[in-house]
Amino acid sequence: MSSGEFIVSLDIGTSKVRVIVAEVTEESTQIVGVGSAVAKGTKKGAIIDIDQAIQSIREAVDHAERMVGFDITKVYVGVSGNHVSLQSSHGVVAVSSENREIGTQDIERVMQAARVVALPPERAIIEVVPKQFVVDGLSDIQDPYGMIGVRLEVDAIIVTGSKTIIHNMLRCVEKASLSVAGIILLPIAASELCLSMDEKNMGVVMADIGGGATSLAMFQQGHLAATSVLPIGGDYITNDIAIGLRAQTETAEKLKRKYGVAMVKEASNDIVFQVPTIGSNKEQEVNQEELAMIIEPRVEEMFHLIREQVVSLGFPAEPAGGYVLTGGVTSIPHILGVAQDQLGSAVRIVSPKYIGVQDPSFTSGVGMIHYIQKRWMLRMVKENSQSQSSQKKKRGPSTLERVKSWFSEFI
């Protein structure tokens, strides 16, 4: 792995398709290429037009390929949406080694045992997330590797989704001349980048506010407790601007990005711009304050709906760990002030800190890279340890290939 291996994440959003290429070495993870395209053929996290969706995926991949200079053939696909549900599971195995030392194979076997659950025919397993391991009755173990025991158990969360939605998404990826290395639940991946363990333990809500939808993930006692998707996002702000100023949607989007602020009191009357009016050859003169008067009510409504959804799912309106916001909409200036007015003072905004991807709209894609890299590093350390203890040199597939194989079991 000294020369590095490449991980590619594919995030098929409601408004954008994003591809991120990262080079992983023993020392670091480096983002080396990104690509994006307007999402076509998707609605509320589901594929509604396969041909258009394939075209959007290819455009995003082509964009990334031009940056990195090689062909992308294998990707990890992110999944989210209201079709996703969580359920608890339990797995038990006997430790297989003669000296009763728990190894990676034992952990893999107990995770496979946790997957054996009865599911309706229309559901498919996306991911199995361990909550705790139990070794001979000793609970609250996060990583049992290297421990001595006879009986290994795991309490896990089974993440399932609609088989139709998942298979259609994977079919689009494969028809775009790509193979699927694995599928990953986006809220879990994004939490690797956005949330601290203290926040997860206290109870926190993560909101990824995109163009066409807002994904919510609630964490309690260190684990994902619920997910939800609201059909609100930056496109709704753009539509309000287009209606309020009688402008084309493309013009409204440009105005939002260039002049938009989320709070009227932070806007300026001195910043004036010309807006072409639909149905007229004349342009109207608009200032930033007038634009903010359109944006602020919609942003307030978005945060009000987020708060209502959190309460409806049985969680406190102001969780102890607060709210963590990310996604493209959070780049609107002064949106944090509106969020604090609606959600409480414990609100912060997270954005990736990489050259080329300092845009919060890439949080989910970068989170997937972190999520995979974290598991690669854990396996690398464990396999190196096993190799040293046995005084034998490992042969066969690389550690990253083993992680790819592990992820592919859930497809």
From TrEMBL:
Q: How does this chain sit within the bilayer?
A: Peripheral membrane protein
- Tell me a GO cellular component: cytoplasmic side of plasma membrane
UniProt cross-references to Pfam families, sorted A to Z: FtsA, SHS2_FTSA
InterPro entries, alphabetized: ATPase_NBD, Cell_div_FtsA, FtsA/MreB, SHS2_FtsA
Q: Where is the SHS2 domain?
A: 7-194
Instruction: List UniProt keywords, sorted A-Z.
Output: Cell cycle, Cell division, Cell membrane, Membrane
**Domain of life, per lineage:** Bacteria
One Gene Ontology BP term is: FtsZ-dependent cytokinesis
The signal peptide, as residue positions, is none
List where in the cell it is found. Answer: Cell membrane
Q: How does it assemble?
A: Self-interacts. Interacts with FtsZ.
Instruction: Describe the function of this protein.
Output: Cell division protein that is involved in the assembly of the Z ring. May serve as a membrane anchor for the Z ring.
The family database entries (HAMAP family) matched by this protein are listed as: FtsA (MF_02033)
Family the entry assigns = Belongs to the FtsA/MreB family.
Q: What is this protein called?
A: Cell division protein FtsA
The record's gene field reads: ftsA
